[in-house]
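Message: A physicist's question: would you kindly supply an amino acid chain plus fold tokens?
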Amino acid sequence: MRKVLIVGGGIAGPVLGMWLKRLGLEVSIIEARPTAAVGEGAFLGVAPNGMNALEPLGVAAAVAAAGSACESFQFINRKGEAIGSIDRSGDASAFGRPLTMIRRGQLNALLAEEAARQGVDIRWGQRLVAVDETHPSHVMARFEDGSEASADLLIGCDGLRSRVRSLILPDAPAPRFTGLLDYGGFAQGVQVPVPPGVNLMLFGRRAFFGAFVTPSGEIWWFHNGAPESPDLEALRKHSDPTRERERLLELHREDPPWVSDVIRATPKLLGPWPIYDLHAMPRWHSGRVCLLGDAAHAMSPSAGQGASLAMEDALVLAQCLRDIPTPAKAFAAFEKARRPRVDAIFRAARRNGSGKAVSGAVSEWFRDRLLPFFLRLGASGQSKMYSYRLEWNQSRA
């Protein structure tokens, strides 16, 4: 194994590329977008376990500098009343790094720039159309512009709608719609009832709303709620920002007034993004081709681990390729090592996501009284996720 082709230049691809360069491999990343996706998405959290997977690459400090540490989670009901909290102020001392909130586009650009600096070849504007696995010694990738590339290995890091997955595993299950749409944005000049560094979570009357205030006072927010129409593809293609903003304002009309103030103060509404997950994949690899991150196991953002799991995946796959000389065996070892952790966090994401569904008055009453108990359990589970630490020198043979 000397040459590796990575399809996808978002989060997983550049991280994997940097690890594989450490093995002395020739690495190329092929990305369909014309440039780094600096405008993609809203924001996300890189958990301590994800930050620790970046640390040996020399990237964690740059991510920390570009983002903001989360000190706690605060949960309120539609009346604005506090119903629970999770203290995360000790994460840096306990796990080495805190949960770091960062704009997704900024993270994409930072990782791509660092991968290129470390010698990873990144080719923008090339869209994969075919994968030829018929050759015993290499795999061939063909692109929309008529070009092609051969490599000893091909790794699909191309996300939920993975083109690599559809080509090598055509019978794989389709992503499942969770029932929630995601919107987001960035606003300023509105007073939110928490200090900087707090993730505020609102169980609204008709939708869920989250807000995070940065040290500069900028408000990063997201909305999760049911779609107006079952035709998700039409909604995505023909979304009207003015109409969508009005709809969000109506959905949060009975919630604390600051929510509507934040939505109105947002210059550009981001979304909608239907939230999907992908589970029960029969396998993650075929011959000399393997899937990684969301291409293999997408989950809703409710567990706050999607990006961090992809970073862990990259490290473990590099270990397996380092220690196991046969591609098929290395990929099998990677999948065996990762499935138990991925499955456990996937279940947590589904549980957390189901709690965002709109409730009736009786359900709200019980939720408000039982949530502190469940949050104690959730805090313990969250700490267990955060404490997971991979060591590069660990053998996978």
Q: What stands out?
A: The mean pLDDT is 93. The longest strand covers residues 176-187. The chain is about 40% helix and 25% strand.
